[in-house]
Write a structure and sequence with these properties.
Radius of gyration: 16 Å
CATH superfamily: Aldolase class I
Active site: 12, 131
Helix content: 25-40%
Number of domains: 1
Family: Belongs to the HisA/HisF family.
CATH architecture: Alpha-Beta Barrel
Pathway: Amino-acid biosynthesis; L-histidine biosynthesis; L-histidine from 5-phospho-alpha-D-ribose 1-diphosphate: step 5/9
GO cellular component, one term: cytoplasm
CATH topology: TIM Barrel
Strand order of the largest sheet: 1-4-5-6-7-10-11-12
Strand content: 25-35%
Function: IGPS catalyzes the conversion of PRFAR and glutamine to IGP, AICAR and glutamate. The HisF subunit catalyzes the cyclization activity that produces IGP and AICAR from PRFAR using the ammonia provided by the HisH subunit.
Shape: globular
Distance between the termini: 16 Å
Largest sheet: 8 strands, parallel, barrel
């Protein structure tokens, strides 16, 4: 059975507003997270990702009240990340309406957090988010704190470790492509898909329909932000196009 490809809007939230930048900087406003969540749920998004992108760099808790208000508007799987440092916060977010927890900075600082979350809530709840920047041909380094801090970690080795600790899915962002609209880093996606046998979500670089199809030939889902936020493409258009490319998407 062929698994259907997923289209997943991403809400990068700071100060209670959705923002979008290029290469993780030059952020501009993209709207209200609750209203956008409602719209994407209605339009047929397969899932929704909500990332509080300054929680870790500001060393503060995630904005729980906004998560709750957003969760009330969506009836599709809802992933939440940003500033999650312990299983108590994971539990609070799941109670607030999240279906999955995305771990990034805290997982690098304390890899055992992946195992704890997976054992407590199930691997299907734990998404390992990885922000990677290319350092050499077929080599990428992991960055943390919203792309501010280089770690020296090899991205592909980190994906393998995350899977072995119990992550059920990978959210992989190319920092080099983020917001550029030049296409996803398909070399990175291909290498990641070969390194792990859990689903990989492509993130960073979509500029047109062809880019989305290209990424989905390597992985199981595509994360989208500015193309949707600024109404350049709709989820319906994307899914219709994928069908023409022999890439079955969920209705």
């Amino acid at each position: 059975m062929t698994l259907k490809k997923r289209i997943i809007p991403c809400l990068d939230v700071t100060g209670g507003r959705v923002v979008k930048g290029t290469n993780f900087v030059s952020l501009r406003d993209a709207g209200d997270p609750v209203e956008l969540a409602k719209l994407y749920d209605r339009e047929g998004a397969d899932e929704l990702v909500f990332l509080d992108i300054t929680a870790s760099s500001d060393a503060r808790e995630i904005l729980l009240h906004i998560v709750e208000r957003t969760a009330e508007q969506v009836f599709i799987p809802f992933t939440v990340g940003g500033g999650i440092r312990d299983t108590d916060t994971m539990r609070a977010l799941l109670k607030a309406g999240a279906d999955k927890i995305s771990l990034n900075t805290a997982a690098v600082q304390n890899p055992d957090l992946i195992r704890q979350g997976s054992e407590m809530f199930g691997a299907q709840c734990i998404v390992l988010a990885v922000d990677a920047r290319q350092t050499a041909p077929n080599k990428w380094e992991v960055y943390t704190h919203g792309g501010r801090t280089p770690t020296g970690l090899d991205a592909l080795e980190w994906l393998k470790k995350g899977q072995s600790l119990g992550a059920g899915e990978i959210l992989l962002t190319s920092m080099d492509r983020d917001g550029t609209k030049n296409g996803y880093d398909c070399a990175l996606l291909d290498a990641a898909a070969r390194a792990v046998n859990i689903p990989v979500i492509a993130s960073g670089g979509a500029g047109k329909l062809e880019h989305i199809a290209e990424a989905l030939r390597h992985c199981s889902a595509a994360l989208l932000a500015s193309l949707l936020h600024y109404k350049e493409l709709s989820i319906t258009e994307i899914k219709k196009y994928l069908q023409t490319q022999g890439l079955p998407a969920r209705a």
